[in-house]
Amino acid sequence: MKQVFAFLLLCLFAQSAWSQKSVKPELVAKDRREILQILKRQTEDWNNGRVDKFMNGYWPSDSLTFIGKVGITYGYQATLANYRKRYPNRDSMGTLKFDILQLDFPAPNLAYVIGRFHLKRPNIGDAEGHFTLLWRKIKNRWVIISDHSS
What we know:
Blueprint: H1 2-22, H2 25-47, H3 51-54, E1 65-68, E2 71-74, H4 76-86, H5 90-93, E3 95-107, E4 110-120, E5 127-138, E6 141-149
Parallel strand pairs: 1-6
Antiparallel strand pairs: 1-2, 3-4, 4-5, 5-6
Domain DUF4440: 35-144
Protein name: DUF4440 domain-containing protein
Signal peptide: 1-19
């Protein structure tokens, strides 16, 4: 049993070291810029009332997960429908601002973002909270595969 445990521990350390060393610094910088650019574009799309374009940052798949105050939503279309229902007009959408607190690459083609959002909505009250985003590079394009916002 000790040998199995030692082997599993060794595999864990080897995978961690591999994932950190196998991602070249210049690629990390490029990927970081791409993700930050997508988040910037999402902010602009939201602030212009374009929920459909805002959703371009998400994985267009039934496997997308969105976790919010009301629970888990599965799938791109269901997530879009929830956004449309919760934010039916420009006043409800307000003006969005993201603050990125952490952006890490735990493995090649995988990114993890922690941030804060703020919606300035003068007519109905502001909203704010934190989010975690799990990103994957699929077909050479970064997309959000899981969003937990609260």
